[in-house]
Design a protein that fits this description.
Chain lengths: 748, 352
């Protein structure tokens, strides 16, 4: 990041663990951070999408002549003149490859689907050109909602997990239970709504392509674009230094991004295409809706005897992504019999996609609600019930956890929130104004995953270093946290390390998803630095002129730009001296970050947390406000507590959103999302979350990876959504099982 | 958006002449109009920018206790005007409960009156909407209509008027000053907006070219200053339109209501003055039973237009709440969460 104006930090010892502020913060608050749509190569034209207003059928006619005639319009791209692709955009050749609409034909398969692209000298001309196309359609009846007719049993859910999983005999467990709860919960379709819309600036030079576009997965994007265009991946250069949020929707290249590239090809000039807010409610993914039925059995002592989590979800008519909402039940509570099952319907919508905490977010609010319902049935405090059913090993697999400080999370959360003395029965607490007050608890969990990533580190003769990996900063702080890891791996101050990232020409850092990026890219950097240091050490130890000569098995330590003999730290020399004497300009190391396959074989790897929520509700009007949230999370080694706390805050606010605010409202007849804007698609404002605390609970994970890093990016939603839902029940005595909780459900 | 002519007249007469041409629209700060244009909901051929007109941006506190507000006065400037908010606290509270700080800093008084409904079917050019295209039909009627009108709606249109500001204005008997080619006229705010009936495309009494130049609050409106509140129920704590809202003003003499004012928001295509409720309160004791009776009267004619039956009871409750809060008394300072049920209530708790 050559353009970074970084703040000066005072470092005390290693960089890892320091609460550094974002190194790109100054750039961002001064408007100098260059996002994709800020790029304006010479000669650039603007493209506007025309999108379908019907959800199923075909485009019968477009008034291309009218659009072309509009002043400033340069070209109109339709299926008739769209440059050819080497690959059918409907081909699926991998688990993370999704079918896309790139003007391959006149079919319409969801509302908001691109049906043409207008390219013009100005954005205004392109936009009006798109309006002038005035499409005529042959529309077919659409199906929306979870009661649609086309029901099927999926084999796989999420990115490729088996849909059905069983452990023990659930029916026997239910039959033997003293107490039973069966309840059905619904979650709506949600849209990612990153603040930065999907944008692309595409510029061709012969058969080489440069694109500026936000990406959570540069290598995948490069491969996908190359495959579609029939070009070698190295011909595709993608720059993505900053993302204005991604939440999963920028994990794979979408149809509109490919159309921006094709538009540039068609007109032979650079083209910029930026989605309008309402155009983000179709071709770039969403969180699929769910209807979840939980069946729980418990004995007289409050011990679970069985847990059945059935999910009805929805995907598009033309591709599969099934929200893996039941996976949370594999992990969280120690039931001797667990079953998770799915069915799904096909709808005339865009294909759902992973959205922050896919599966766990939707599943957790249902499971945590049901657990509370069972705790009440058993006459137990919700925390007592959860501790009674605490999973010492992962219940589904029987594997030990690589680490699990959930008990400590509960304990610290309880103390900080002041949970003690909470009445068991609902509608018992009021504030000084007579508002109903409720307290709720939710357990948070998210798997600790890793993708595979590479990194390169170079120690230079001047004693500084370069570390690089094509990582992705969506706002989570990768520019900072990864640089901290790189600096420690090289035994240097962070300001002595030039850190490069966000570019497809750099080593593949793996996808920024699954809360895995810091672990994956970070371990790759860790190994790359270690590799460079090892080579430098070899060089020194083999050189008679070095004070390290012959250190041999005693080994050396890298610290403050020097190698020191482990057995005698007074004997050492600087990196610069070693390289100078060897006549080398630099020395290079390479590293890979990936989960050791032995780890998941022997351990269940998850982050955990406990979230406590207080809500206040007007007893007559039903308006709800989450007035206090305390979350305590354990996620292994914390690389940067400031950034991690920020991730937890964001996740917890999203949890409030999930429980109380967020939903796409789809018209049942047209299949159009009727609130496709940030005025009407509600997410919390500051006033909705007046008090928020995140506690970082210490946890040492000796197994998950060499640095013990687990994920923090998604877990905050899980637990929180259920905690808020449970608090609403506790305040009112009304158990609302459809989310977001609507005012009218609370009117008694 | 479409290509359009842009005019910036220097006088009101010039503006009116320009705007009387078919296809014209007045542009104030554009917080609503420009969004509508970008969404292809409206496609005016000519924008007549009011930014160059003199004399429309003044707040005049009249010696008789009333006020006259120029049409281009910004919402925030009016709400934070100390003397105005002292005389008409419910109006200030309503203004500050609307939109966001950024929008309030831009949006004007005249624009607030003339903002369009937030009905999603009106905003979606692919949906049938009798407001946008008379005779096209109303897709909201059988669609997602949880937040639509429960009073004064017709088969042609079930949209609501979104303004918070207009609700206390209706309650307090505000008057709209209008200039047009035929000269100057005044219309009570209560009669300014039209119910949909057979012609939902006609939303106000304005004739082509007519311009709202000012808004007047009569002197008697200030007599409610000690007991005036606005309360707004919404689906998040801020930056959301009202599910239902109410403005209430009371004159309490010797423990009895001498005069009451009540209007509802979010329930109809216009701010809904509840005169029957006001009549029921005159001479009554300011207690929960009176307020509930008044609320029943206010909603006596209400019927659901879709999946929104709950709004009728909610509207009763918000009306009763606004009256109860007004009876407690206007707070010394506007609460940090204006019009919110979560704003602290001075004195005794509202709920048992």
């Amino acid at each position: 990041m050559a353009e970074t104006a970084s703040a000066t930090h005072v470092r005390h010892g290693s960089s890892i663990g320091q609460p550094l502020t974002r190194r790109d913060g100054v750039l961002k608050v001064t408007g100098q951070a260059r996002y994709a749509a800020d790029n304006h190569p010479p000669g650039m034209l603007h493209a506007a999408l025309a999108v379908s207003s019907i959800a199923r059928g075909r485009v019968a006619a477009l008034d291309v002549a009218a659009a072309r005639a509009h002043p400033g319009v340069v070209e109109v791209m339709t299926p008739a003149n769209r440059p050819p692709l080497a690959q059918d955009p409907d081909d699926k050749n991998g688990p993370f490859v999704f079918r896309m609409e790139a003007l391959q034909d006149d079919r319409v398969r969801y509302a908001g689907q691109p049906i043409a692209v207008v390219i013009a000298e100005t954005l205004e001309a392109a936009t009006e050109g798109a309006a002038l196309l005035a499409p005529r359609y042959e529309a077919e009846a659409v199906e929306t909602g979870l009661d649609a007719s086309d029901v099927f049993i999926p084999q796989m859910v999420g990115p490729g997990a088996p849909a059905e999983a069983r452990h023990g005999d659930v029916e026997a467990g239910l039959a033997a239970a003293e107490r039973r709860v069966e309840a059905t919960y619904e979650t709506p379709a949600q849209y990612h709504n990153a603040m930065e819309p999907h944008a692309i600036v595409a510029a061709w030079e012969g058969d080489r392509l440069t694109v500026d576009t936000p990406s959570q997965g540069l290598a995948w994007a490069q491969e996908r674009i190359a495959g579609l265009l029939g070009l070698p991946p190295e011909n595709i250069h993608i720059r993505s230094p900053f993302l204005g949020g991604g939440f999963g929707s920028k994990g794979v290249i979408s149809g509109p991004q490919v159309l921006g590239i094709l538009a540039a090809r068609l007109v032979g000039r650079p083209v910029k295409l930026v989605l309008r807010r309402e155009q983000m409610y179709g071709p770039v993914g969403h969180r699929g809706p769910t209807r979840q039925t939980l069946r729980l059995g418990a004995g007289e002592d409050g011990g679970l005897t069985a847990l059945h989590h059935h999910v009805r979800t929805a995907t598009s008519r033309f591709d599969d992504f099934l929200e893996p909402a039941a996976s949370v039940s594999h992990t969280l509570y120690a039931a001797p019999a667990i079953a998770t099952t799915y069915d799904a319907v096909r709808l005339d919508t865009g294909t759902p996609l992973f959205m922050r905490a896919p599966g766990e977010a939707s599943g957790s609010i249902a499971l945590e609600s049901a657990i509370d319902e069972m705790a009440l049935e058993c006459g137990m405090d919700p925390l007592e019930f959860r501790l009674r059913n605490y999973a010492e090993v992962e219940p589904m697999s029987g594997k030990p956890f690589s680490s699990k400080a959930l008990r400590e999370c509960y304990a610290q959360g309880v103390a900080r929130f002041g949970w003690a003395g909470r009445p068991l029965q609902p509608r018992q607490m009021r504030d000084e104004n007579g508002l109903l007050v409720g307290w709720g608890l939710g357990t948070a969990t998210f798997p600790a995953l890793m993708f595979q990533g590479q990194a390169r580190a170079v120690i230079r003769r001047d004693g500084t270093a370069l570390a690089e990996t094509g990582a992705h900063d969506m706002g989570q702080g990768a520019w900072t946290a990864l640089a901290q890891l790189a600096a420690d791996s090289l035994g240097l101050e962070i300001d002595q390390v030039e850190f490069r990232s966000g570019d497809s020409r750099l080593p593949d850092a793996g996808i920024a998803g699954g809360s895995s990026h810091t672990a994956t890219a970070g371990i790759a950097l860790h190994h790359a630095g270690a590799d460079a240091i090892a080579k430098l050490t070899e060089l020194a130890m083999a050189d008679q002129r070095s004070p390290l000569f012959g250190a041999g098995n005693m080994g050396v330590v890298a610290r403050n730009g020097r190698l020191l003999r482990r057995d005698d730290e007074s004997r050492g020399e600087s990196y610069a001296d070693i390289l100078t004497r060897a006549g080398l300009a630099e020395i290079e190391g390479r590293g890979t970050g990936a989960m050791d396959p032995a780890v998941p074989e022997h351990y269940a790897t998850h982050s955990h947390g406990a979230v406590f929520a207080e809500v206040k509700i007007d007893p007559e009007l039903g308006q709800i406000r989450a007035t206090r949230l305390v979350g305590a999370f354990a996620a292994g080694r914390i690389v940067n507590p400031r950034l991690v706390r920020s991730q937890y805050y964001g996740g917890m606010i999203w949890g409030v959103s999930f429980a109380l605010h967020e939903q796409a409202v789809m018209d049942k007849c047209s299949g159009r999302v009727m609130n496709a804007n940030l005025g009407e698609y509600h997410v919390p404002v500051n006033a909705d979350v007046p008090s928020l605390e995140a506690i970082l609970v210490e946890e040492h994970d000796p197994h998950v990876n060499p640095l013990g890093i687990k994920g923090v990016g998604e877990i905050g939603i899980t637990g929180t959504a259920g905690a808020v839902a449970n608090a609403v029940w506790h305040a009112t005595g009304v158990r609302v099982r459809r989310f977001p909780i609507a005012i009218e459900k609370l009117l008694v | 958006m479409n290509r359009f002519d842009y005019l910036r007249p220097a006088s009101i007469a010039e503006a009116i002449a320009a705007a009387a041409q078919p296809g014209s629209a007045y542009l104030a700060s554009g917080t609503n109009l420009l969004d509508l244009m970008k969404g292809d909901v409206v496609r005016p051929a000519r924008l007549v920018d009011l930014g160059g007109l003199p004399g429309l941006d003044r707040i005049e506190l009249l010696p008789d206790g009333g006020a006259r507000i120029g049409a281009r006065v910004r919402n925030a400037d009016l709400a934070y005007h100390p003397e105005f908010s002292r005389r008409f606290p419910a109006v200030a509270e309503a203004l500050l409960s609307g939109a966001s700080a950024q929008l309030r800093n831009a949006a004007t008084v005249g624009g607030n009156l003339l903002q369009r409904t937030r009905c999603a079917y009106f905003y979606d050019p692919a949906s049938a909407c009798n407001k946008r295209a008379p005779g096209a039909g109303c897709d909201a009627r059988g669609g997602e209509n949880r937040l639509h009108a429960v009073l004064g709606w017709s088969e042609r249109c079930i949209a609501t008027h979104p303004s918070d500001f207009c609700v206390p204005l209706a309650a307090l008997g505000a008057v709209v000053e209008i200039e047009g080619q035929a000269g100057r006229r005044e219309v009570p705010l209560e009669e300014f907006h039209l119910l949909p009936g057979e012609t939902p495309e006609r939303e106000s009494v304005l004739a082509p070219g007519e311009l709202v130049v000012a808004l007047r609050l009569p002197a008697e409106a200030a007599r409610f200053a000690a007991h005036a509140r606005y309360v707004k129920l919404r689906e998040r704590t801020s930056y959301a339109f009202a599910v239902v809202s109410a403005a209430a003003g009371l004159r309490i003499e010797q423990g009895v209501i001498a005069e009451a004012r009540l209007a509802l928001g979010g329930v109809a295509a216009k701010p809904w003055r509840a005169r029957a409720a006001e009549a029921a309160l005159a001479g009554a004791r300011p207690d929960a039973a009176s307020f509930r009776r008044a609320a029943e009267a206010a909603l006596a004619e209400a019927t659901p237009s879709g999946d929104n039956e709950f709004k009728i009871e909610l509207a009763r409750r918000i009306a009763a709440r606004a009256l109860a809060l007004a009876a407690i008394g206007t707070p010394e300072r506007l609460p940090a969460l204006p019009a919110s049920p979560f704003a602290p209530v001075p004195g005794a708790p509202l709920h048992g």
